[in-house]
């Protein structure tokens, strides 16, 4: 079943001064694959502000700066057994210089709580082939790299 309304979503391609891309893995759900920070746009929220907010929430750090909008696509994604339409905004963000090479952060109440979902963050070489991203994210990231 396809939901009628497209859900507004953002994805953030966060790079640092050496050009590396920030990604994360779900250590308790390896099938989720390697991802970039992403999430929903709140009602009335500016999409660029949503990209920064989602990145801060998922990483546990602040100081990200929006470089530019890379792309906007209307996509269909399978979520919990049903097709959803997403109005997906892809942004390029610049990372603060103080971010470590690797760290763990998560979403939920507290580490160890039943609702806590850990994320393992690390940086990847943007020239890696193949990029360890979903095909749609890899394609958008390649367009970002070609434009810079």
From TrEMBL:
Query: Cross-referenced Gene3D superfamilies, in alphabetical order?
Result: Nucleoside Triphosphate Pyrophosphohydrolase
User: Which key words tag this protein in UniProt?
Assistant: Hydrolase
Q: Which InterPro entries match?
A: NUDIX_hydrolase-like_dom_sf, NUDIX_hydrolase_CS, NUDIX_hydrolase_dom
UniProt keyword Hydrolase present: yes
- Which is one GO molecular function term here? hydrolase activity
Question: TM segments?
Answer: none
Q: Which domain of life is it from?
A: Bacteria
- Tell me the ranges covered by the Nudix hydrolase domain, including all copies: 5-139
Q: Which Pfam families match?
A: NUDIX
Q: What is this protein called?
A: 8-oxo-dGTP pyrophosphatase MutT (NUDIX family)
